[in-house]
Amino acid sequence: MRTICFYFQVHQPFRLKPYRFFDIGEDHHYWDDFSNRSIMRKVAQKCYLPMNALLLQLIHKYNGAFKVTFSISGTFMDQMEAYAPDVLESFQKLVATGHVELLNETYSHSLASLKSKDEFKDLVYKHQSKIKELFNGYTPKVFRNTELIYSDQIGAMVAELGYDAMLTEGAKHILGWKSPNYVYVNSMEPKLKILLKNFQLSDDIAFRFGNKAWDDYPLTTDKFINWINAIPQEEETLNLFMDYETFGEHQWAETGIFEFMGHLPEAVLSRTNFTFSTPSEVASKIPPVGKIHVPIPISWADEERDLTAWLGNDLQDEAFDRLYELEKLVNTIDDEEIKRDWRYLQTSDHFYYMCTKFFSDGDIHSYFSPYDSPYDAFINYMNVLSDFMIRLKEKTNSQKEETSIQS
Amino acid sequence: MKVLMFGWEFPPHISGGLGTACYGLVKGLTHHKQDIIFVVPKLWGDEEPMADFVNASDISIDYREKKFKSIWKNLTYLEVSSFLVPYLGPDEYKKFTDYAIHDRTDVDESIFTTKYEFSGKYGKNLMEEVSRYALTGAQIARDRSDFEIIHAHDWLSFPAGIAAKEISGKPLVAHVHATEFDRSGETVNQVVYDIERAGMHAADHVIAVSQLTKNTIVRKYGIPASKVTVVHNAVLDASIIKSTFQKKVPEKIVTFLGRITFQKGPEYFVEAAKKVIDRDPNVRFVMAGSGDLLNRMIDRVAELRIATKFNFTGFLKGKDVDHMYAISDVYVMPSVSEPFGISPLEAVRHNTPVIISKQSGVAEVLTNAIKIDFWDIDAMADAIFALLHYNGISRMFKELGSEELKKLKWEHVAAKLVSVYEKTISAKS
Questions:
Q1: Is B153 helix (H, G, I), strand (E, B) or coil?
Q2: Who's near A189: CB < 8 A, 6+ residues apart?
Q3: Any bridge partners for residue B287, and if so which?
Q4: Is A101 an active-site residue?
Q5: CATH hierarchy code of domain A2-292
Q6: How distant is the Cα of A250 from the closest Cα of chain B, in angstroms?
Q7: Which end of chain A is more exposed for a tag (fewer CB within 10 A), N or C?
Q8: CA distances from B364 to A169, B215, B219, B398, B399 (A)
Q9: pTM of this prediction?
Q10: Which residue numbers delimit the Glycosyl transferase family domain (chain B) (predicted)?
């Protein structure tokens, strides 16, 4: 059996509003409601609504022979409920067809897997229950970590939580001569299957599709079918993983991306020996070929496929360490708003905005950042974090008082 | 006495401290019934009518005047590729010079038209404006013969002062608010230095805003000490400001407020902050302002892992500046080189105790402040800690500092100036 596995990442962060020094200690609302709403509405019109409609049509047309997978972050689900109930409804319809799989991730698209096992688990459970709530009791079987971050350790942690499989990047530096087009297993917990992204063919769609300077521009369905057919016969699975915003937002409708996707299922089913599957089907049907060793965490970002988009410079490390120092304190406090802000502050995007790798991938970074510079991003984040710390202290003190009064 | 005064800016349209100082001086001089003809490159029309203002942009130059030729000859060195903006930091300066080298090589011909529209800013045509301002100075000195003395503020107006002296033969007083060494450290811009030096040498008397500046003038510009008089700046309003603005954070606040540039010594503040934060968790440092060293300071704060206790506000204006002073428990000015430095006096007005570097002119007039060497971060940390914890000192500073402030009046400054004028005129005649 040879099969293509399409997985789309659906995520929006809760962006911080411009938060000034003078706001510290006074203003406890950190989120830029206006821009979060307007970005959500804009992308809904350009991407989520038209692409969901197209996928629904394709699923019906091929009566289940075409299927896709989503990982929808908790922050995205919260934003759908607040700003885009129409988008939520269209996702619910897709899931209800039975040919769409949902993956589990950390609720707030967090980097907790690198720092705290307890927090990581909490966020996974929280995401699970949110999916259950919004998608009619649905329970995911496969896990994907924020930004496809993966290491042997993280894999073992995910296995412990009971998942069958996990997705990550088919990074060149860990694969070496090996091909991403097989199923592997975690080197510490072999029961956890590892599905690797074929970054060549994924990025042809996600990053290069509309690039007129690219040698293979324009990417037609014919061309893509030829590349798929060129994959050696013994290689059984082709994992095409990408941001969902590829369709209509990163690649505008004018590039023909919707037409490309509209024609792809027909071409694959009639002119190749590939089918379409979801990650849980791949994991259960295709036998693994061996262990994959990833001692140092990898991700799907940038040329290096490492963590340097989010962590590593002084700004990022300072913000990240100061944030997670608060974990214990947050857990002693019984307050929904504190918990919510704590989760939202963990979203990887905040650290991405502080990235200073200007000269190689910086242009992509600046496209996605609401700030003029990584320094502005850092200042704003630290001002918010300063206020959050003051609130934690106050809450702790008032809780202590309450208990002393009661006793 | 009638004084022909050349400035570069005047409130409300100012971008530096020079305009504020000129305002105070003029106000003080009118208190002593002096008549001032105040020339600025550009008048906006909303200046307070306290002097006989002359808008240099309105002056037409009569090129038939023979003496102009010799004046122009002395100015020609300005003409050659003088891509120079002295109030930029080194990084910005480099960006600008790169641009200037490629895009313009000499002065625009419009400099020789009869009228010239000055921007009055510190922009890319600064040198062109300075030279043109000199021609205007000569024209005004020829048209208005009723003044007895010429007074020029800082190098921007020195060529105008020199030209006016040459035309009229009246004595010139050069007022030094800052030197090129304060602005650029040891890597001075030669053209600016030359103008400063020419101005001070051509002057009959030189005024320095502090002893510190006088020392620089004597040592680096070769002016005899007897020709230089120290006249400190003052404050326009010495009243204590009672702010109702409340701070919202529980910690005590230690503030740096100013341009984040080499001259202001921000890095010493950051290093001292680290030392204090290590000892005292109940303190928050704030760096308010912007400048070419801002990002480097942010990097350093992150590297020292103190960013939850060290905030940056960006550039503050209007009310926010007052609020910042009002909520500060300690104000620090660690300037590497500050001819005067008015901001600690503002802090005193807000009842905030101050720590100032010995390398600032204001240290000569403010007794009730802690004075440290800008590089001595241990002493700075000690002083911050002491002012935060030992209420005795900070209370004393608050009380005595505000008393001291009341003595710093522009009228007193002006009285000193008038005696300098008188001496200069009598020495000349």
A1: strand
A2: A155, A156, A159, A160
A3: B256, B312
A4: no
A5: 3.20.110.20
A6: 31
A7: C
A8: 65, 13, 19, 18, 19
A9: 0.83
A10: 245-398
Q: How many CA atoms lie within 13 A of A370 on its CB side?
A: 18
Q: Which of A355, A348, A395, A378 is nearest to A115 (CA)?
A: A348
Q: How far is A333 from chain B (nearest CA, A)?
A: 20
- Active-site hit among A101, A119, A147, A249: A147
Interface contact A386, partner B, CB < 8 A: yes
Alpha-carbon distance of A399 to A395, in angstroms, equals: 6
Cα–Cα dist B86/A355, whole Å: 33
- Which residues fall within 8 angstroms of residue A98, CB to CB, at 6 or more apart? A64
Tokens of B309: 């206790």
Domain ranges of chain A: 2-292, 314-402
Residue B6: beta bridge partners? B39, B152
Tokens of B374: 């800008």
What is the rounded CA–CA span in Å between residue A109 and residue A9?
11
Angle at A191 between CA A187 and CA A193, to 5 degrees: 75
Please report, to the nearest 10 degrees, the dihedral formed by the alpha carbons of residues A95, A96, A100, A105 taken in order: 30
To test the contact with chain A by mutation, choose from B299, B306, B322 the residue with the greatest count of A C-beta atoms within 10 A, namely: B299
User: What are the CA-CA distances from residue B258 to residues B262, B266, B314, B331, B334 (Å)?
Assistant: 11, 9, 10, 11, 10
| Length of chain B, in residues | 429
Predicted-complex ipTM score: 0.78
- Regarding beta strands B252-257 and A193-197, do their DSSP bridges make them parallel or antiparallel, or are they unpaired? unpaired
Chain B positions touching A373 (Cβ under 8 A) are 295
Domains of chain B with bracketed CATH = 2-234+410-428 (3.40.50.2000), 252-407 (3.40.50.2000)
A320 by DSSP, 3-state: which?
Answer: helix
Q: Tokens 């950051």 correspond to what residue? A: B270
The alpha carbon dihedral of B157, B160, B166, B169 has a sign of negative
Which residues 319-358 of B have a C-beta within 8 angstroms of A? 320, 323
Smallest CA-to-CA distance from B258 within B188, B178, B338 is with: B338
Which residue in chain B is spatially nearest to A379 when comparing CA positions?
Answer: B312
Tokens linked to A368: 């996605």
| Contact (CB<8Å) B313/A21 | yes
The one-digit pLDDT tens for each residue of chain B (429 residues) are 899 999 988 888 876 678 889 999 999 999 999 999 999 988 888 888 888 899 888 888 777 766 776 666 655 444 333 333 334 444 544 444 444 434 433 444 555 567 777 877 666 677 778 888 888 898 899 888 889 999 999 999 999 999 999 989 999 999 999 999 988 777 888 888 999 999 999 999 999 999 999 999 999 999 999 999 999 999 888 888 888 899 999 999 999 998 898 889 999 999 999 999 999 999 999 999 998 899 999 999 999 999 999 999 998 888 899 999 999 999 999 999 999 988 899 899 999 999 999 999 999 999 888 999 999 999 999 999 999 988 888 888 888 888 888 889 999 999 999 999 999 999 977
- Taking the C-alpha atoms of residue B385 and residue A211, their distance in angstroms, rounded to an integer, is 59
CB contact under 8 A, A375 and B298: yes
Q: B284 contacts in A (CB within 8 Å)?
A: 386
Which of A188, A146, A181 has the alpha carbon at shortest distance from A307? A146
A22/B253 Cα distance (integer angstroms) = 12
What whole-number distance in Å separates Cα of residue B231 and Cα of residue B238? 18
Answer whether A24 touches B (CB < 8 Å). Answer: yes
Nearest-Cα distance to chain A for B301, in Å, is 9
Task: Write out chain B residues lying below 8 Å of A322, CB-based.
Answer: 305, 307-308
